[in-house]
Design goal:
It is a single chain. The protein is α+β, with helices and mostly antiparallel strands. Helices cover 41% and strands 20% of the residues. The chain is built from ten helices and eleven strands. The strands form three sheets. It has a six-stranded antiparallel β-sheet, covered by helices on one side. It has a three-stranded antiparallel β-sheet with strand order 6-5-8, covered by helices on one side. It is globular. InterPro entries: Cupin_2 (IPR013096), Homeodomain-like_sf (IPR009057), HTH_AraC (IPR018060), HTH_AraC-typ_CS (IPR018062), RmlC-like_jellyroll (IPR014710), RmlC_Cupin_sf (IPR011051). Residues 187-285 form the HTH araC/xylS-type domain. This is AraC family transcriptional regulator. GO terms for molecular function: DNA-binding transcription factor activity; sequence-specific DNA binding.
Length: 291
Amino acid sequence: MRIPVRKELQLPSASFTTIELQEAHFDPNWHFHPHYQLFTVLEGTGTRFIGDDIRHFEAGDTVFLGPNIPHLWRSDRAYFEGNLELKTHGIVAYFTEDFLGEGFFDKPEMHVLKQLLEKGQRGLDITGSARQMVRENLKKIASNQGFETILELLTTLHHLANSSEVVYITSVGYVNTHKVSETERMQRVYEYVMKHFKEEIRLNEVAALANMTEAAFCRYFKSRTNKTFSDFVSEIRIGHACKLLVQEKYSVTQICYESGFNTVSNFNRQFKNQTGKSPLQYQKVYMRGGE
């Protein structure tokens, strides 16, 4: 995993752009850009990183992100191993606040849309029927062009602005504090954790990758991610465990050790702390399609 690189998206021929992504794996770079983003996963699984939030993703994952929120949909390792049966598919729409002219969203009639843009500064998970609406509308936008696409995008945003089926993603007060000059240092750390989370991860080794003492690294990591390094590693491991639980191929004990935990009791405790459920409860809720 790479640390957020600022991307400059080029939108030369339209007021906003929609891209249908169909690749062996999603972009492996953690990045941010000055555009709003509406994104849905149609196919693929992995770990999703948005700001200070980490969780498993699969087909159906749909979000609305404001500008400059670092994000990455990191495909599972199998997608990078040349398995031709595995592929990823998603649709993303990018736009700026002034894509219809400066002050457009400041007009009285656009008040609810302006509120949605403000909520997007923390990122929004889209759930329930709103998720299905966004997915279908993004498909329409991707297959059309011209004036119809603008109407479809505005209609989609209007429905989202009036929906209760959205949940904030990042924590209160989250701010992107990453600098482009720091990307190489953090890239080494994140890539190391993604590669070795199933094993014991020693703080002194990770701090050395960042060319820091252990204490300095812990302070640095907390200031940049709004969480401790140990919490970050735990979230990566729990996200992997969630994926294995929904596959129903392994016992809880097997999943515990496959995800990098040393004891079942510690695994159960940390899993419940992060998800609010025991591993078996999580599995049962998922199989019922949610509570």
